């Protein structure tokens, strides 16, 4: 039977969940903390950020468990560290982190909940506090492992720095919002966000991998905590498997400094400022100020927090008949903008214009060149690559639906001829056609031959985006690789391919342009 003190704690822990209602406004202390204590890195020299305000590692902290951090805690941290790669905690895990995780897991066990509840709670605590029990508020009045706010009904300040109370408060809120054990299924990051209502909803999923590792290690050795009433349904007896393989782990999860973007803003990636980091290029069909096609470039080195360029181009307004791609057309090591007009041209053919990056897209390198293609439509996607190794960018045209054999078809136009001739006959791939498929061209296996990546976006919360890679060396007739991403709806996201962490493996960027809790464009990069 729970003690009187424990029962009192549990009643107080049932306070309504209102921790992060509305956008987070950073205080001066929070901004200073972010400058003085940069986020941890998942790989040496490769910074990764979640968009959450950084907390000073040296801030006043309350112990998570009585006594000091044990040698066993430090040993577990040392064992887990090589496998930890989340943006918030990752390789900085230490004995204090493990001690705080033990306190959370012990409370979950005492409440009669299973390992998945512990994973959800630890995921949240990693994202919110990097498993630091903050006794001083640096973001509004947020305190403790879960950064719960007294002003939002979570409890008194002294209660919120008590890991047992704070964990019970989190669990009580989760059980209210997910009745009937519905928290047992669905995306872990989405469950964390529903409880916390954070201004940074994408911050939780990238930490689930590390939380699973910690819970798997501690579940059988977690300390005993005074028992709380158990839920009606039995808890599972096994810890979920830790995901592995490509596109399971986030390298970056962040809100950009961009507001919501409309449907006529297309995205691309290229190294604009030659710092060896991919920058995000946004092409808007018509600027409200000038009525011309507009380009904005966000700096990848700052996780897209800094604007490198805003410029109206030499082109009049473009519309849904146009597609965009980035390439170095003239070999000056500056990204140029290719604009493809599918239909409505004077020639009756698909036409290409190329704007010079060195002039900030104010000058045309190629103007409305008619190609060997007749008019195309929105079933056709365009990419640029050096298909035949002549150091000239070629135009790859991928038809994703409406083909005779119901297979994705590819045509390649020779850049050396200004796209006046085909380099190959039409390639009929092995992949079924689907108008919802996204496609990209990249050298997936580093054989200097362009490969085709077909991305099948998911439509349900527990779905997975499926990537299939067709081998360019086999004329796209052989499947080179296949992978499913971590769970999560992606049908409404823009999907881009890039090598973010310079490991020569293509990574997947998923961009949400509208509908985010923060009101900003947000993105996640999954490591390939």
TrEMBL record:
Compositional bias ranges of the Basic residues kind: 1-12
This protein's UniProt keywords: Signal
Name under which the protein is recorded: VCBS repeat protein
Superkingdom of source: Bacteria
Segments of this protein annotated with the region Disordered: 1-22
Signal peptide positions on this chain: 1-44
GO annotation, cellular component aspect: plasma membrane
